[in-house]
Amino acid sequence: MTLAQRMVVMNAGRAEQIGTPMEVYENPATVFVAGFIGSPAMNFLDGTSEANRRVALDGNGSVPVGVDLAAGRKVTIGIRPEHLTPCKPSEANLVGSVEVVEALGADTLIHAAVAGRTVIARLPHGAPAEIGEPIALCAARDRVYVFDAETGARVRAA
Prior knowledge:
Layout: E1 7-11, E2 14-19, H1 21-26, H2 31-36, E3 43-50, E4 54-57, E5 62-64, E6 74-79, E7 84-86, E8 94-103, E9 107-114, E10 117-124, E11 134-139, E12 145-148
Antiparallel strand pairs: 1-2, 3-4, 3-6, 4-5, 6-12, 7-11, 8-9, 8-11, 9-10
C-alpha cells in the first residue's frame, strides 16, 4: 500500500475495487476487500438490522451504524481493530472476554471472544487487559462498515 498510487484488489480473476490505497482502506466496496486490506484484518460480525440505525449482533450486543436499513435485514458488520476503544460496560457496543494479549511495543492487540467470534482491538501500548477478564469495547457509528450478508457488497448511505 505504501508504494502504490492506485491499486486493484482482485478476487477470483475479477476486480473487486480500484482506487488509491487509502480510498480502498477507508471505503472498501465488499467484505472481501475489507478483509484483504489492513493488518490485523477487519473484524466481521453477523447481525440483523433494527430501528434507529442499529444492528443486533448474532450472539449478543448491538452496534450503531451510519446507514438507514430496513428492519430485519441480514448484514455483516465490519470494524477495524484500530477503531475499537475500551469503554464502560454500560456504554459498550461489544462485550467479551479477553483471550489473548499481544504486546507489540507501541500497540497492544487484544483478542476477545465476542458474540461467538474472536474480535481484535488494537489499543495503545500498556492497555490493561488480562486473559479471562471481561472487556467492553465501543465503536463510533462512522467507523462501523455495513455489508449485505448475501452479496457481500457494502451498504452505503442513500
